[in-house]
Amino acid sequence: MGFYPIFVDLTGRRCVVIGGGPVAERKVDGLLAAEAAVTVIAPRLTARLQALAADGRLEHVARDYAPGDLAGCALAFVATDGGAINAAVAREGRERGVWVNAADDPARCDFILPAVLRRGRLAVAVATGGASPALSSAVRDRLARHLGEEYGVLSEVVADVRREIRAGGLRPSAGAWRAALGPDLTRLLARGRRGDARARLLARLTAATCP
Hints:
With 211 residues, the chain is of the alpha/beta class. The protein is built from 8 helices and 7 strands. The strands form 2 sheets. The chain has a 5-stranded parallel β-sheet, sandwiched between helices. It has a two-stranded antiparallel sheet with strand order 6-7. Strand 2 (37-41), helix 2 (47-54) and strand 3 (59-61) form a beta-alpha-beta unit. Helix 5 crosses helix 7 and helix 5 crosses helix 8 (194-209). It is elongated. The termini are far apart.
């Protein structure tokens, strides 16, 4: 099964999670990090989900899934052990044009969730098309050993330099950017020399753009 990799802006958009256990908890954490408006539909919640509901971080509907629960939502997540529930939610999702992710049930998924490595604004997603989530996680963990926290700082430096370059009317090519982002920048950042890394990147891009 082929999947198109995509990052989705869910800020303020309603997303439904069906189930209140540990798997649902992980889905909710990811959605809250994306600033989605989260509704959890389940008779019972984990202690952490209860605390989030009490803090007003999510809406809790204390019952089992019922047809119509996907109305007005952007994405739906099923995190239960019930195959019949997965099928019903998937069916409603198709009828309403709502994408559904059913945990451990790829046949009823319109999208899958990759293993994600985050370093500040930088996010690296790894997936196997649903074939092996364990392999995705293993590859992510190997990447984590090579991509340290300095890459998060680098993403901030790059965003800052990009704004300055554009404000000055310069438009470096993709090739110029790739050439400018050498490994020496992360070495500088690993030593805490953010100003030097920024100046070096800016100088390279300016030189590559100006006649």
